[in-house]
Specification:
Shape: globular
Oligomer: single chain
Distance between the termini: 26 Å
Radius of gyration: 26 Å
Order of helices and strands: HHHHHHHHHHHHHHHHHHHHHH
Amino acid sequence: MKGHLRHSWKFLTSKIHRPLPLDRRTTHKLLTALNTSFQRNLDRQYPQGLDGSEQSPDAHIDSLLKSPLFGTSRVQEASSNLPKYGVRTNKIQFREMEFALAEPVEYFKQQVSTGSATLDSAKVALSNQLQKTLASAALDPKESMKASGIGSVMVNWLWSSGQYEELEFLSDRVFVYRLMPFLIVEGQYKPVWRWLQHFRNSLARMDPAQMQCDPSLLKSISRLWCALTRCEVRYGQGLQSAMQMFMTSYRSMQLSVPAIPAHILQKISVRAGQCLLWSLSSGKSSAPLEDTVIEDFRRFTAWWALDSRVDMYQALIQISHPRQPDVAHALRFLAKIKSAGIFIREKDRPFVVRIGLKTVELLLAQGSFSQAASVMKTLQNDFASELGLNTEPPVQTEIGERSAPRASNLLFAV
C-alpha cells in the first residue's frame, strides 16, 4: 500500500517540479546517499552477516526440510525401529519433495488417503499449487488454477475430516487466504456462504457481552469476509460483483434473528469494505462499473463505516469515480481536517494520502497547478512517512558536520 503511494507521489512531483540536470558534485552526493541508504538497509536486514542471519539461504532450506509436508507419516514412524528397512534415505526424501512440488494436488490426496493430512500440509499444498500455476505459461493463470481442482479437494477433505462444520480452520489466516482464490476460480461459493451463515447464526445466539469476550470469533468472520471480497475482485467477476456481493451479505447479516448489534456488524465488515475502497481508488476494475452500483456503495458506507470515517470514505469514492470524479468533496474534506486539526489514526492515514494524491492528479489535469502544489505541500508536511520521505533529523558527526542526506530528500532537493 505504501509503495504504491510513494510511486504516485514521485510521479506527481515530477510534473510540478521537473528535476534539473545533475552536475558532478550533485551526482556524487546522490551516489553517496544511495550507497549509505543501501548499506543501512543491508545492515538492518542482515545484522549478523549473511551466514549468521535467520534469513540466510541455509536457514531457508532448513525451514523447507522441516515443513510438516515432508514429515514422517505414522506408518513410517511405526517402522522406524526396524534395523535396516525402516530408515528413510535422503534420496527417497528428496524424491518425495520433488513429487510434492511437481504434483501438489496428488501428493495431498495421498496424505488424505493415509490419514496424515493436516492443516499445515494443506497450506503447503495450496502454496505449491499456486507457484506451479504462476510458473506455467501454457494456460491462463485462472484457468490453470481452476483445472487443478485443489479447492474442491480441500473442501472434500474438510468435510471428511469433520472440520467443515466446526470451522476451527477459519481461525488460520494463512489457510483462508491461500484457499479462497481457488474456491473463487472454481465457482465454489456455496461453502463460503455456508460458513458466513454459520457465523451469522452463532452471533445471533450470543449476547453483546459474549461477543466482546470472544474477539477470535469476530476476527475469523472479518477475515473470511475480507478474503471473499478481495479474491472476488482479483480472481472472480471483478469489482462490481464484489461490491454487490458485499452489500448483499451485509443485508443478510442485518436480517438475522435476533438482530446483531450495529457496532458488531461494523467491526466484522470494515476490512472488506476498505478492500473495496482501495480497489476502486486504485483503478483495479477490469470490467466497467455501473454508476448505480457506485452510488449504492457510496451510500452504503453509512452502514458499515464508523461515523467519523464516513466522510473520508465517501470523498474517496467520489474522487475515484471512473467517469465523473468529483474533486470538490475531496477538497472540502482535506480543508476540514487541516483547519480543524483532526487527528488521523494510523490505519486511516493511507486513505487520506490516496485522497490527496487523486486530488492532485485531477487538479493537474484541470490546469490548477497552484492548488495542486498546495495540496502536495500539505501531504509532504503531514504524511511524510506514508510517502517515503525522510522525517529523521540530520545526524551530527564528530567534527560537527552534517551526515550525507538520504536519497529521497536529495531527489526532492534537486
